[in-house]
Amino acid sequence: MSGTVEQLQAQIKDQGAAIRQLKAAQAPADDVQAALALMQDLKERLRIETGAPPADAKKLVLKTPKGTRDYTAKEMSVRSDIFQAITSVFERHGAVTIDTPVFELKEILMGKYGEDSKLIYDLADQGGELCSLRYDLTVPFARYVAMNGVSNIKRYHIAKVYRRDQPAMTKGRMREFFQCDYDIAGAYDVMVADAECVRVAVEVLSKVDVGAFVIKINHRMLLDAVFETAGVEEEKVRAISSAVDKLDKLPWADVRLEMTKEKGLDGAVADRIGEFVQLRGGAELLDQLQSMPDLMRSEKAQQGVREMQAFFKYAEIYGVLDRISFDMSLARGLDYYTGIIYEAVLVEEEEKSRTKSPAKSRNPSDESQARVGSIAAGGRYDKLVGMFAESRGKKAADVPCVGISFGVERIYSVVMSRMREQQIKANRTQVYVIAAHSGLLEERMRIATELWDAGIAAEFMYKAKAKLQAQFKVCDDERIPWAVIIGQSEVDDGVVLVKNMAVRDESQGNGVRVKRVDMVAELKQRLGQ
């Protein structure tokens, strides 16, 4: 290669001299450009020959894309515990799990999310079908039900979804994140399945210990009746609903301004809406609504009140009434909801949202002002499956559905904020096999094998001459609770020393002597197995 490099360097030198002569002789521009092009070609060949980077190459920046992140071993340990806690609740209620592709046909997703459709990630056209990354797990589930002719199923699904949102990483708002969905599909008595979804939410949020929370509920039929009574034009209903949904973040004055200035709603109509959407309470709010003759002329309002009465009755039976707040401002901007809707929020965050200054909430890119927000949300969507059935040219076959989705990233950010890193155990190792003197590698391997065969999580240091203090340090750093310690005398006597590494008790000495044949049984007893 050196000969070729030297030749190219010589040619470049000669070409440089030729270019200078052409310019000095005021040669035609075309001749000069041709000489410059040849020079550029020679330099590129030299770059390739020497393996040098392109002249315009930028230095590689090692980072994750905006709105995504890596997780450490300790962080993944916490997340794994959260997933297991959620899954155990889902399965206790009889749910089965399914999986769907991470991307769907674009036409499947479009028109299902209202104003949030702009947050869908479209994939580049590779000369085939137009696809997009899934925005949530609900629409893919409805597509699955319609495509497979499912008439009833209680399913859960834990997977990643993608949104081109403005991220606030420390608050759990990301562009790639996990959702944990629990849905019940099938025709059942009014509000029985709906109330169980709220019960599931209470169990999950209590088990992962996010702190005090409240589940806000409303009914889309009541909200639609409010808009109808107030005089909102049909084509503006979804846009006004989206504005109302911001009342958990903005004061009424700001929401009213959006309705009138941005959405073109008459001020008097907005004021009538304001009389309703600022109402909140419990089951007694239904009595208040029934005392409003203008509202109750609407058949939607009548049906909404009847269904909510059933819901409150079942919620009391399920023991979750104290966790519920009937909030007429809850709108849930997604287009597919048809009945009850709900959203779980932290009590502390909810109180902050009602007392903060409006000026502090207007910059969505200011992460310091971001709240954790909703940690779970869902509702009833009875028409979505039928919509997909119609698209296949079949007779519409609506399969009523209701479900709830848990925002794992937001739950995780809350849980992690309450933990100290040194308290987190990243691995599941229960026993560390230690050599008291240098050597004994093969004996440590034999003991570890016995422990693995017995179903005990065990490790040892992969060094023939492992230092004692280095092995103890692994137990401290990795929070490994028990150690099996051996020296040559223990091997000769057919015993091991079992020591509790989780406590600093000098009375233990080097550990308790246990016969080698009794080692597994002794450890299982101490581990509670």
Summarize the structure.
This protein has 529 residues and is α+β, with helices and mostly antiparallel strands.
Describe the protein in words.
- It is a single chain.
- With 529 residues, the chain is of the alpha+beta class.
- It contains 20 helices and 16 strands.
- It has helices spanning 2-24, 29-50, 73-92, 106-109, 138-148, 192-207, 220-230, 237-244, 252-262, 267-277, 284-290, 293-296, 299-317, 347-355, 384-391, 408-417, 441-453, 468-478, 488-493, 519-527; strands at residues 96-97, 103-105, 131-133, 153-162, 176-185, 213-219, 280-281, 324-327, 340-346, 374-380, 401-407, 431-435, 458-460, 482-486, 495-500, 512-515.
- Strand 12 (431-435), helix 17 (441-453) and strand 13 (458-460) form a beta-alpha-beta unit.
- Residues 356-371 have low confidence and may be disordered.
Assess the beta-strand content as a share of residues. Answer: 15-25%
Number of DSSP E strands: 16
Strand order, sheet with most strands: 1-4-5-11-10-9-6-8-7
Helix-strand category: alpha+beta
Helix content: 40-55%
N/C terminus separation: 66 Å
Give the CA-based shape: flat
Taking the sheet with the most strands, its summary is: 9 strands, mixed
- Average residue pLDDT: 87
Low-pLDDT stretches are 356-371
Give Rg in angstroms: 33 Å
Secondary structure tally, helices: 20
